[in-house]
Amino acid sequence: MFLISISFVDWHCYKKIFRNKERIFTMQMTDLKPGVKIDYNGMPHEVISAGFSRSSQSKGFMTTRMKNLANGNVIEVVFRDRDTINGIDLEKRKTQFLFKQGDQYTFMDNETFEQFEIKGSILGNKGEFLKEGMEVEIMLYKDAPLTVELPAKVALKVTDTEPSIKSATASDVKKPATLETGYKLSVPSFVNEGDIIKINTSTGEYVERA
């Protein structure tokens, strides 16, 4: 029996090396469905749509529309039965959003304290719901951060809106409002400046007061 001594630093390095090995596996053409992620030309892509067709002179082919997860570009690609398709499982890390500077959003790994930067052009409207100190999951591929996964709802402070109407309770009466992140939306007339409200991060719409 013997023991292997691993220092605290070595252990964190070991965990990082192990964790950063994304799972890559071979797929069939018929496995391509919306939401499936593959490595195409060395870049991570997500399938948006896929349609199978067959001709009398072939075994069939799959016409897909895919989004490049690194730059947001959408392309159309036709796959045939003989093509090699590599499916991927992206690495996820729990991080904290630190700050935004220009078009760069900076996040910190909760375990290793490693920092990552993602451009606002890649995050898209997800950046409008990020508040400093918020915990989110980052998706990485080959150690490069791609995007973040937001919670279904986020709570943000209303920094600008018209005064509420006295005795207003109906949620169908709307007015414009601006949140602490700069995001603008319509809120019920009873919402006041300074209120904390919950936003649906998928639709960008008001849900309720926190």
Key descriptive features of the protein:
16 strands; OB fold (Dihydrolipoamide Acetyltransferase, E2P); mainly beta; SH3 type barrels; single chain; disordered N terminus; elongated; 5-stranded antiparallel β-sheet; 3 domains
Helices, strands, pairings?
Elements: H1 8-19, E1 23-27, E2 37-40, E3 43-53, E4 61-68, E5 74-80, E6 85-89, E7 91-101, E8 104-109, E9 115-119, H2 120-123, E10 135-141, E11 144-149, E12 153-161, E13 174-179, E14 184-188, E15 196-200, E16 206-209
Textual characterization of the structure:
With 210 residues, the chain is mostly beta strands. 8% of the residues lie in helices and 50% in strands. It folds into three domains: 34-53 and 61-84, SH3 type barrels (Roll), CATH 2.30.30.30; 91-149, Nucleic acid-binding proteins (OB fold (Dihydrolipoamide Acetyltransferase, E2P)), CATH 2.40.50; 153-209, OB fold (Dihydrolipoamide Acetyltransferase, E2P) (Beta Barrel). The chain is built from two helices and 16 strands. The strands form three sheets. The chain has a six-stranded antiparallel sheet, with no helix packed on it. A five-stranded antiparallel sheet has the order 9-8-7-10-11. A hairpin with a 5-residue loop joins strand 15 (196-200) and strand 16. Residues 1-20 have low confidence and may be disordered.
